[in-house]
Amino acid sequence: MNGKVRRREIWTRKAHRGRNDVPRAALFTTLVLAGIRISELCMLDGQHMDFARRTIHVPRVKTDAAERSIPMVPRLYEVLLEHRAEFAYGPNDPVFATRLGTRNTPDNVRARIVAPVHVQANELLEAARLAPIAQLTPHTLRRTFASILAELGVPPRRAIYLLGHRDPKFTVLERSRVHLPNGSNPALAALSTFPIER
Q1: Cβ–Cβ contacts within 10 Å for residue 5, how many?
Q2: Fewer CB in 10 Å around end: N or C, the chain?
């Protein structure tokens, strides 16, 4: 496999995709496990993905602090590597392109990716007789990432960097809005092996 990756044999042949084939799972996983802003996600190009170092280099979109490198946790790395193999992109191409190959917009991601996931999640919760998710936006996924950092005991200074904040008050606010139940570390460990439906 490594030889094929080096020789670029895996990514030279583009598979035929259907009209509605877009990278929903990879995009959603990146929002949850990298905690990037939706505008940053839409600006990611191939050159920002460093698979050798397992990092995402987030370009400056909002502030100077927004430009940062985020490590890919094992599950995110696997999902993004599969995405790279399935949706070939060059160094200057968007990582999460539309079905036509153009750059996604925040409104498009909200309407065509996050909103349908919200509906489907609530249908599954309803079938299991559980409470629905009241609100699901790219920013609530960013807050979830902040809560995961807090639950894992990531130092606040590191969390500030990973979230791309200048002001520590924003990070404290983000980390305090969504609370994970006590004793949830086994659930967090399961994130690295959780299967994602396409």
Answers
A1: 14
A2: N
